[in-house]
Design goal:
alpha/beta; four-stranded antiparallel β-sheet
């Protein structure tokens, strides 16, 4: 695949250019260090080319899990105001019925698709939605002209339509709001890409710009890949967790993503067996899971290349703002502890060796590989440590002043909508939209960053499952309970300690007090509720041969 060279133009001349198209590509649970341009050994040539022709961000943040991230991307507003103060599946009793905790993208925000559609954009989305189950809450009712989406948070990647939770066992798909069955031969990454290309092509002759949100369900478990991809990484992970992590760390330093001398934070050490402590059979199964995961990511990159080729062939590539990101960190949380799943997976799925990665199987890759995916950051999805919220993100567009640059400004997924609206020349409606009150955007435009300027300092907060964090400049507060934290506030200087190894709460009482005041302001501003959480959502200590005992 060959890209056209980016045509650099000044922001001042953008008013004379056609309004840009927007393509947002979201990976599901991709680790910070998985892809090649972020230090990974997985082959991702199309994403790597995007990075070389655009800008990589080394400090881009999301929510700790998927649906809160998607709510903020779509609204520019904190998830606690946009309806996803908690994931809908895990709402707690003290949250139910409270504003901001509806469990779906609520009407208190003017979302990106609605606003751009009103400004003359075609609007499309394919893939994971996870922002509302019913037709009334589907993309068709929220500003998308064409859509083909998975309602739930995950599903089989094949045409059997198995979901991921025993109490909700069938995947639900909707096309333009109507419930549909996926076609025979369906594979998620291929199909979602096909649909997005079809949607863009159907309206290409109108001359109107488009917003396309291509939201892959790869590489979210269950780990699946087409047969011709399954063995592409055979033997690659036989060295184990520690060797792959060290390889990635060295490549990240060579690429300039990390300064020399940075030590990876590996909080799984001592909690789960190291590679040389596993039995031969455990190592074989662990390596195979990671091989399938890598095949999924490689396959996703292949399909990303297909849509970029389409844009190039139609002359639209250089007028398209492309953003690629993961929706949160790598996923080390086990599906086995979801309600009823242990018995359901044991009885209903075929996880024999020859069927791993194929239709009818259901495996994940576990906390140790997820910690490798987070290299060098601590923990993974669901946590407010950097491993849960710091993700790979790439922008390719003519507004990027220095293609190939790695930028370390502190950015947030709430910044996406303000950026796109500025590029489109569209104002946010403020506090009222289509006859209803809405929250103004909290995010900031990233355009100054793309042009080499600094982002204004601000306090960014996180809360999910009672786990909390706040970042302001170089400083970060983190509060997580055991086994992930100390059950009290910890303070880190991320400029000097980007992997959260040295708690400075006792040594820096004034900075601690300053950030705690910022935290209280964040809670008040965003209606962050406190209460008792009863959630079994974390890593598992079982490894295949003892998971179903």
């Amino acid at each position: 695949m060959t890209f056209m060279a980016a045509s650099l133009i000044s922001l001042g001349s953008m008013a004379d250019e056609p309004r840009p198209n927007f393509l947002i590509v979201i990976a599901d649970d991709l680790g910070y260090s998985d892809i090649g341009s972020y230090g990974g050994e997985i082959e991702t040539p199309n994403l790597d080319t995007l990075a070389s022709e655009g800008m990589r961000f080394s400090n881009f943040h999301t929510a700790p899990t998927c649906s809160p991230t998607r709510a903020m991307l779509m609204s520019g507003v904190d998830s606690h105001l946009a309806g996803l103060g908690n994931m809908g599946e895990l709402l707690q009793d003290f949250q139910k019925g409270e504003p901001g905790y509806e469990g779906y993208l609520n009407d208190s925000v003017a979302n990106l698709a609605e606003v751009l559609q009103g400004a003359g954009y075609h609007t499309y989305t394919t893939g994971k939605w996870h922002l509302g189950r019913s037709e009334e809450l589907s993309p068709a009712a929220r500003g998308f002209e064409r859509s083909y989406i998975l309602v739930q948070g995950g599903a089989s990647h094949f045409d059997d339509q198995a979901a991921i939770i025993s109490v909700d066992p069938k995947a639900i798909y909707r096309e333009n709001g109507q419930q549909v069955e996926v076609p025979e031969g369906f594979f998620s990454s291929e199909f979602y890409t096909d649909k997005m290309i079809d949607y863009i092509e159907a309206d290409r002759e109108t001359g109107q710009p488009f917003l396309g949100i291509l939201s892959y369900t790869a590489p979210h478990w269950p780990l699946h890949a087409p047969d011709e991809w399954l063995d592409r990484y055979a033997g690659r992970y036989d060295e184990g967790y520690e060797a792959i992590r060290e390889e990635r760390l060295q490549r990240m330093q060579a690429l300039g993503l990390l300064p020399a001398g940075i030590e990876a934070n590996t909080p799984m050490a001592g909690r789960l067996p190291e590679w040389d402590e596993l039995t031969d059979e455990q190592r074989r199964r662990e390596a195979r899971a990671m091989e399938i995961y890598a095949a999924m990511v490689d396959n996703m990159d292949h399909h990303i290349g297909r849509i970029i080729d389409y844009l190039e062939d139609t002359g639209e590539l250089d007028n398209t703002f492309i953003l690629f990101l993961s929706d949160n960190g790598a996923d080390g949380n086990t599906p086995l502890d979801l309600p009823g799943n242990r018995e359901w997976i044991a009885n209903e799925f075929d996880n024999s060796w020859g069927n791993l990665g194929r239709k009818g199987s259901y495996i994940d890759y576990g906390a140790q590989w997820a910690q490798v995916g987070s290299t060098p950051l601590p923990f993974f999805k669901g946590m407010t440590s950097q491993g849960g919220v710091q993700v790979p993100a790439i922008v390719r567009h003519s507004s990027v002043l220095t293609p190939g640059e790695i930028n370390d400004e502190i950015l947030h997924v709430m910044d996406v909508m303000p950026t796109l609206l500025e590029l489109a020349g569209v104002d946010h409606p403020g506090d009222a939209f289509q006859g209803r009150e809405v929250h103004p955007m909290e995010g900031l435009s990233m355009l100054p960053v793309l042009q080499g300027e600094a982002m204004s300092e601000r306090a960014l907060g996180w809360e999910l499952f009672g786990r909390r964090a706040l970042r302001k400049g170089d400083w970060k507060l983190v509060w997580m309970t055991e086994p992930y934290g100390a059950g009290e506030w910890q303070l880190y200087n991320l400029a000097e300690d980007p992997t959260e190894l040295r708690d400075l709460a006792d040594q820096e009482p004034e900075k601690l007090a300053e950030l705690l005041a910022d935290w209280e302001a964040y809670v008040a501003r965003n209606n962050v509720l406190s209460g008792d959480f009863n959630i079994e959502y974390g890593f598992s200590t079982c490894l295949y041969d003892n998971c179903f005992e």
